[in-house]
């Protein structure tokens, strides 16, 4: 199953990806003052009582265990997988490299194993790094027994310093049943938290109810 969102009453799901590649880890080693964990996003969601689903790359989890624990401890949040190494599951996926098909299921399963001890609202949802997948990738991860989740609304927040653009990218396409994708990787998406309050307020003004992905899918 690959879900990209579909009509479900007036519900809409905010999802956040945490990316972490070997290259990003190398940047952290060279410059420990940077961060790929935007905890201000969590602050906004907490303040505005907004549910969300987090697709966490396990290299990110291992780098930021305290932030992962904070996410897991919040009853409004749920946890999903964004792979272990965040390498591409297709031959071409941005600059992520390529994970061999015979390693794909193990990578996904390892990511769930790393997430499990954190508790909270665990799911078996999985989102491909970069959103890139094909028939081979789907067949290769079938043994992991997960549900692949894509998205229907792209905030385009990575490397985007235009807050109004991020807001408009979401609000112009939002509709019942939509799955919105944003990021909590601060160094790569530094202004997501600044756009988020207006996004939440704008969605609610339209009568859309913010829910977790599980709640959204259960209404289909």
Automatic annotation (TrEMBL):
Top-rank taxon: Bacteria
Pfam (any one): Polysacc_deac_1
Domain NodB homology: 10-211
Protein known as: NodB homology domain-containing protein
Protein source organism: Fodinicola feengrottensis
Source taxonomy: Bacteria, Bacillati, Actinomycetota, Actinomycetes, Mycobacteriales
């Amino acid at each position: 199953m690959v879900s990209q969102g579909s009509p479900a009453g007036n519900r809409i799901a905010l999802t956040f990806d945490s990316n972490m590649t070997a290259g990003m880890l190398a940047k952290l080693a060279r410059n420990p003052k940077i961060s790929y964990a935007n905890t201000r996003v969590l602050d906004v969601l907490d303040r505005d009582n907004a549910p969300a689903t987090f697709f966490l790359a396990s290299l990110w989890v291992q780098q930021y265990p305290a932030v992962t624990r904070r996410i897991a401890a919040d009853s409004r949040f749920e946890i999903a997988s964004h792979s272990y190494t965040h390498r591409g599951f297709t031959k071409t996926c941005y600059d992520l490299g390529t994970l061999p098909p015979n390693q794909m299921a193990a990578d996904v399963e390892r990511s769930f194993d790393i997430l499990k001890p954190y508790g909270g609202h665990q799911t078996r949802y999985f989102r491909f790094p970069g959103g890139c997948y094909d028939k081979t990738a789907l067949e290769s991860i079938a043994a992991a027994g997960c549900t692949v989740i894509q998205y229907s609304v792209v905030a385009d927040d990575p490397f985007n310093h235009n807050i109004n653009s991020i807001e408009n990218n979401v609000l112009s396409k939002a509709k019942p049943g939509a799955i919105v994708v944003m990021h909590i990787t601060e160094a790569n998406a530094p202004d997501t938290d600044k756009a988020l309050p207006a996004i939440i307020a704008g969605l609610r003004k339209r009568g859309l109810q913010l829910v977790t992905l599980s709640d959204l899918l259960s209404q289909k």
